[in-house]
């Protein structure tokens, strides 16, 4: 189905971003996969071209483009080239907004220009070895010492963990109140802040997912985001948008895998005829294309609601749940139609399959999404 049109300016933005990807990303993808990390240079180049934090106000060096469709375009284009290592959307629309929403003017002036130029790469560190879905179980602590906090603890599975220069780190800030969590801006080079292993993963191999350690790190009060006891509330505010991003990416990634499969089945001959001519293939492809089309309509509606400030956590959860499960089904069928070739690294469907598995786990697992939706159903 024809999608609701983007504006002329947004269509031009898409063209420009696509050209950027073909020049600065596609030629490096294989090398990044081998290295297990992208070049930090790609963030700087994205910044140079105006693709980082483009929502930021002009006075902070941004373009003031708050309409989520600009980010949607970038998420879709990255997915359509199968790129899962260059985590610019996390930088742009997951971590950057914490500084925008909860940071002081001084913090915005100090940090945003570097994030916009790509000199400063962002990450967010919530998850710990014993606390993922259940964030209240986190153990990292930040002790109040007046003009500074002393941060201790460890975080794991952190995206941009090696490349990151500035992390929003969640830690408990009041021993008498287990729900008091603060968000602390931890900078590269702070004494006591170190990185552990770059973790080896099933998929998304060019993404530098890592462990972070904090040992008596002195975090100046000037690096606390907002109220140091309201971090939980702040994190919850960002989650609907994070899930909107995740759902947007999953549907575009499903479309990418569908396209790879379509190309393959048209060419592949079995028992004397193209694989695309068998009824099983035709029915499965018809089913997938229907589900992707319907999911796309829901993505676009959620974007509209988000732009109007009305996207509810439940609707964002519905999108994330359905889109990630759909992506899982599409990549699985895609591999099946490729036969043995689908299991070979040299076929992009194989990477699309392993890259997809995590989308049902991170940004809130499918089970957590169902919990959020169920809570809104008045089931008693
Ligand atoms: C590649 C990758 C990148 C990541 N990047 C980041 C990052 O940048 N920053 C960050 O902070 N974290 C990051 N994470 C962590 C991610 O958010 C967590 O892995 C996720 O929240 C799940 O937490 P967990 O791994 O502790 O699993 P658990 O929470 O231990 O879950 C295990 C299983 O239990 C299920 N479960 C949990 N609670 C319930 C419940 N109430 N009811 C029913 N079932 C339940 C889950 O759905 C899951 O199936 C990343 C993870 C990965 C894999």
UniProtKB/TrEMBL annotation:
Keywords: FAD, Flavoprotein, Oxidoreductase. Residues 7-119 form the Acyl-CoA dehydrogenase/oxidase N-terminal domain. The keyword Lipoprotein does not apply. Residues 230-377 form the Acyl-CoA dehydrogenase/oxidase C-terminal domain. InterPro entries: Acyl-CoA_DH_CS, Acyl-CoA_Oxase/DH_mid-dom, Acyl-CoA_Oxase/DH_mid-dom_sf, AcylCo_DH-like_C, AcylCo_DH/oxidase_C, AcylCoA_DH/ox_N, AcylCoA_DH/ox_N_sf, AcylCoA_DH/oxidase_NM_dom_sf. Residues 124-217 form the Acyl-CoA oxidase/dehydrogenase middle domain. It holds the Pfam family Acyl-CoA_dh_M. Its cofactor is FAD. The keyword NADP does not apply. PANTHER family: ACYL-COA DEHYDROGENASE (PTHR43884), ISOVALERYL-COA DEHYDROGENASE, MITOCHONDRIAL-RELATED (PTHR43884:SF12). Belongs to the acyl-CoA dehydrogenase family. This is Acyl-CoA dehydrogenase family protein.
